[in-house]
Amino acid sequence: MYDLTRYVCPQLFVQFKLILKNHNRSEDMVFIFAENAQISDVFRYLDNQQIDYSWYENQLTVVNSLKEKV
Which residues fall within 8 angstroms of residue 65, CB to CB, at 6 or more apart? Predict the structure, then answer.
């Protein structure tokens, strides 16, 4: 789990991309954001890269990209 609650944009987005890039993505990744965090750039990036994710109560889960699609 990656706690990004102390960051604000643009550092928040940069830290998110850095962690995402350096992670092997063999398992789901969980990020926690502050309640008032501006994360529209994060969602836009994930959508543009066609990365599967879920969002629930300030917690973003990036789905393992290596799982077989059914």
Answer: 25, 51, 52
| pLDDT computed for residue 25 by the predictor | 67
Separation of alpha carbons 44 and 54, rounded Å: 13
* Continuous H helices in the chain: 11-22, 40-48
Sign of CA dihedral 47, 55, 20, 38: positive
Q: What is the DSSP string of 55-66?
A: EETTEEEEPPTT
Q: 68, 66, 70: which is closest to 28 by C-alpha?
A: 66
User: What is the spatial distance between Cα 26 and Cα 43, in angstroms, rounded to a whole number?
Assistant: 21
pLDDT along the chain (70 residues), means of 10: 80 90 82 91 94 93 68
